[in-house]
Amino acid sequence: MDQIIVQVLNGLDKGSAYALIALGLTLIFGTLGVVNFAHGALFMLGAFCAVIFSRILSLSHEIVDETRTDFLGNPMKIDVPYMHDIFGPELGASIIDWAVPLSILFSIPIMVGIGFAMERGLIKHFYKRPHADQILVTFGLAIVLQEIIKAFFGANPIQTPAPEAFTGSFDFGVLLGFDPLTIMYPYWRLVYFAFAALIIGAVFAFLQFTTFGMVVRAGMADRETVGLLGIDIDRRFTLMFAIAACVAGLAGVMYAPIVAPNYHMGMDFLVLSFVVVVVGGMGSLPGAVFAGFLLGILESFASMPAVVQLLPGINQIVIYLVAIIILLTRPRGLMGRKGVMEE
Predict the structure, then answer these.
(1) 301 lies in which domain range?
(2) Which of 78, 93, 296, 309 is least enclosed by beta carbons within 10 angstroms?
(3) For the chain, how many structural domains are there in total?
(4) 74-112 in b/e burial notation, b at 16+ Cβ within 10 A?
(5) What angle, 0 to 180 degrees and rounded to 10, lies between the N-to-C axes of helices 2-32 and 285-302?
(6) Which GO terms describe its cellular component (predicted)?
(7) Are 40 and 120 in contact (CB under 8 A)?
(8) What is the DSSP string of 297-341?
(9) Backbone φ and ψ of 129, nearest 5°
């Protein structure tokens, strides 16, 4: 039972990333009808926003410490972060330690700006083009962004630690009545799941309960009629593209301590996220979230040593097997609208 609970937690952790990326993909497809293969790159850019902000906070200058000497008896030179000078040693060290959560504030305007620039500068020219053209141009954009990151930050992963308060593991088993130390789970992975749930809930609440969201949902259902009412639906859809980019970026920011950011991490998640979208149903937001967590849990259970020993390699293909089965029996996906992907 304890192994089952651990695999469920691992699945929710993976599913959180899948669901957040798939949610942004579905927002873009549902509003603009664009298949955006650059969405994984937005996830990567969010992770590197955390890297950049951490480096900015860690900028330092060199001073001579007369109280400390080297082996020759000369005063030692030490690096002092500017944060220590501005806020004092204790508060400055705390700000540096919390760089990843604080980088959320840094990444939001950046990701919104990148999303807006992508939509206005490139995507809008492909609205009426075939999906194949959209896939080619956005995939090319993803490669360009990937190579830019590689040129500036190198090919090696960059460690971006979580705050010290969230290092270590939480004794999850005690909450469920197990013996102490039976089910230990990393604090930050639990934080990531809670963060994903918060973002997903905020997006759904925004679409469901705000006037802006209601107009967007109406535009997704019947764009022409909404336009005839005198509403500039194109502008609202552009803002939705920026919001979708921001969601992907925030997913990347908080994932940085789990998987060290590297230039190809966007591609690693992109294909899986598209599978999630197709399984959940193209254009279905609840379907994207449900399929993200479902496939994350299935992948986690397929990675158990007993399962891998019985069926070698099953953990690498289980998601695609599920996608094939669902698409053969229900082409529009689990929660897709009737007629979508069924022609």
Answers:
(1) 2-57+108-329
(2) 309
(3) 1
(4) eeeeeeebebbeeeeeeebeebbbbbbbbbbebbbebbb
(5) 150
(6) plasma membrane
(7) no
(8) HHHHHHTSHHHHHHSTTHHHHHHHHHHHHHHHH-TT-SSPPTTTT
(9) -90, 160
- Euclidean distance between the first and the last CA atom of the chain, given in angstroms as a whole number: 44
Q: What is the pLDDT of residue 328?
A: 87
Contacts of 210 (CB under 8 A, 6+ apart): none
Provide the CATH number for the domain around residue 278: 1.10.3470
With 0-12 / 13-18 / 19 or more C-beta atoms within 10 angstroms meaning exposed / middle / buried, residue 209 is exposed
Most distant CA atoms of the chain, gap in Å: 82
Amino acid at 111: M
Are the CB atoms for 48 and 261 separated by under 8 Å? yes
**Helix or strand or coil: residue 70?**
coil
- φ, ψ (nearest 5 deg) of residue 256: -60, -40
Structural domain contains residue 253:
yes
Q: Is the pTM of this model over 0.90?
A: no
pLDDT tens digits for 47-102? 999 999 999 999 888 887 767 776 667 777 778 888 988 888 899 999 999 999 99
